[in-house]
Amino acid sequence: MKVLCVGGGPATLYLAILLKLRDRGHDISVYEKNSAGSTYGWGVTYWPDMLDTLMAHDETSARSIKDHSVRWSDGVAHVRDRVTVHHGDEGFAIGRHRLLNILSERAESLGVRTHFGHPVSARDPVPDADLIVAGDGARSVLRDQHAEHFGTRVTAGHNRFVWLGTTKVFRSFTFAFVETDHGWLWCYAYGFDGEHSTCIVECSPDTWAGLGLDTMERSAALRLLEGLLAGPLEGHPLIGRTDVPGPAQWQTFPTVTNRVWSHGNLVLLGDAAHTTHYSIGAGTTLAMQDAIALATSLQGPATLRTALGEYERVRKRALLPLQSAARHSAGWYENLPRYVGLEPHQMFALLGQRHSPLLPYVPPQLYYRVDRAIDRTQSLRALKRWLGHRIARVLQSN
To answer: The whole model's pTM is what?
Structure first.
C-alpha cells in the first residue's frame, strides 16, 4: 500500500512506524511543512498507562521515549501567597522536539521517507496514494478542502492563553493562581527535560485586555508575566517562541469536531479530526492512540472503506468521555472566581474534580464536603459517578 502522510507530528510519524512494522512492503512518505528540528510546544505530558501501550506496539521507540522523559509526582498549587500539595499524582513529560526526533529517526530506520520543509497547500496537487492521511493539525489544509463533507466544526474557547517555556525546572505538576487589578491569571507548569519546563499562562479576556496583554510587545509581556508569577518561577525567566515575529502568541483554544473522519482515501488523524482542551494534558496521547487504532484497522483484509469506518467508530467511542472531561475542565477555569475564594486545599480538591459534570451545578463548599464524605466509601464513589452524568443532563436541559 502506498501511504502519504501530511504533517510530521507524533501521530503521523507513529502511524508510519506501525504500518512499516506490520508490512515492510508499504511505501510510506511523510510531508512536514516545517524544517527538520523546527517545532514548538516545549514539552508534552503523558501518563504511565500510555507508556505501557507504546511498549506493546513498538518497544524500540517506547524505550527511547522513556529514556528521554522526566517523571514528575505530586501536584502543587500556589494560590495568592499560599501553597498546597496533593500527593500521589504521577506522570511523564518529554520535550516535543525530542519526541519528534525519536519518532522520525525510528520511522526513517524502517524505510519511511520524511520530507521536511515541504508544505502541502490547498493549491498543491496531492500525489497519488492508496491512502492519504491528514495529520496537519487543528487548522488542517486537507480537511478544510472538504470541510462540508467532514462536517467540520471549530469552536473558539473563551479564555486567552499563551504557551511558554522557562528555565525553572518544576519537579511536580504545578498550578499558580495570581490575583491582579484586572482579575485572575494562572499558569500550568511542568518540567520536561531536566533543564526546562513548559509554562502555559491563561486568563479571561477582560484580564488579558485590562493588563494590556492584547497590545503589549513580546518582551514586555514576558517581563510582566515574570513579575506576576515571581513566586513559583523563583527568579527564572519565561521564554517565548522565537520562530514567530511580533507580540506574544496569545490564542483561544479551538475545539475541533468532525461529523465523519474520512472522504474516499483521505482520513483525518489527531488534531485534524478532534481536539481536547490542553488542561487535561492528553492531546499527544490521544493523537498517538489514533495512530494505533488506524494501523490496527488497516491490518486486516477488509476494504479501505471498511477499515476507515472501523477506525472512526473505535476512536469516537473512546474519545467520548475524554471530550466531556475536557469541556468541563475548560469550563472550570472559565468560571475560576466561583472556586478561588475557597481555602487553597479545598480549591485544589475541586480542581481535581473539574471533570465532573455535576460540579458546576452544586455550591462549591457543599460539593467539597459531600465529595470528601463520599470518597470514604467505595460504593458511594461508584454511585456518585453514575448519578453525576444523569443529574447534569437533566440540569443542562432545563
So the answer is: 0.91
